[in-house]
Amino acid sequence: MKMPCPMCQSKTKLHSGAQVDRYVWEHIFCCTNPYCGCTFVVSGEIRRILRPPKVPNPEVNLPVSARAAKRRENKEKREAAAAALPMCSPFRTL
Predict the structure, then answer these.
(1) Which of 1, 74, 71 is nearest to 42 (CA)?
(2) What does pTM read for this prediction?
(3) What secondary structure does DSSP assign to 10-45, as a single string?
(4) Each residue's pLDDT tens digit, 8-22
(5) How many angstroms separate the CA atoms of 38 and 42, rounded?
């Protein structure tokens, strides 16, 4: 992850990081500019699911993005339509 220094806009280096809880991490960044020397904490959070997993975990409670929900709804409609079609053999019977 690249993060510019909020004070001087120089490059920074990731110093360390830790998981705060299941969905939140904190990372400590240090400015590489020796005249600035700013050290700061960046927090990262998992906010929503863009593509639902094939094997969902019932313990995870994250919202699904509107686009992903629409994709899932369309997939379910296609599968239902395919299931409603009569089964036909690809081989001809004489």
Answers:
(1) 1
(2) 0.61
(3) --EEEEEEEEEETTEEEEEEEES-TTT--EEEEEEE
(4) 999 999 999 999 998
(5) 13
